[in-house]
Amino acid sequence: MSKAVRALFVSAAAFSAIAFANAPAPKPTAELKLASTTAKKNSEIKGTVTVTIPSGYHCYQNPPTKDYMIPLKITATDKKTTLKTVSYPKGKVDEVAGEKAAVYSGKVTIPVVFKVGKAGKASLSVKVDYQMCDDSSCQPPSSLTAKADVTVK
Fold first, then answer.
1. Where are the domains of the chain?
2. CA nearest 124: which of 54, 69, 47?
3. So what's the pLDDT on residue 50?
4. Can you give the pTM of this predicted structure?
């Protein structure tokens, strides 16, 4: 192999390592599913928020194991409806940075209950706040939204 070809391979390998090290972490996704697409006015409607956390990462359960851990949190973003309850599941206890902590990984399904108001079409929306971590570090806290439509009669 010539010196020029070898130099090209070394440069390509170094560039790939730098690009991979600086690549942004994958993002989780969230989906809001309602038990029904219709509801009576001033009633409650059940649903689930499914958060999919990328392989190799976790989020801390809500409530977190330790005070300093930032848990996954769901809040309503729609002013016309109320998020009455969020039933966070227990996380899996795992060793994280040398200590035991309850975490969510993979797909996490979280039951929710909304209270809807007056008749008409409504778009229910939730904000999912999270901090995604791997075995050695955590990403900055972030959020995403999930929406579902309902007809209130």
1. 27-152
2. 47
3. 98
4. 0.81
Average pLDDT, the chain: 86
Q: Is the peptide bond between 64 and the residue preceding it cis, with omega within 30 degrees of 0?
A: no
What the block records as the tokens of 43 is 């009633």
Residues 6+ apart with CB under 8 A from 121: 149, 150, 151, 152
Which of 145, 143, 124 minimizes the C-alpha distance to 59?
A: 143
List Cα–Cα distances, 148 to 47, 76, 91, 122, in angstroms.
10, 12, 26, 8
User: CA–CA separation, 15 vs 11, rounded Å?
Assistant: 6
pLDDT in tens, 30-40: 999 999 999 99
- Domain 27-152 = CATH 2.40.100.20: no
Query: What DSSP designation does 57 have?
Result: -
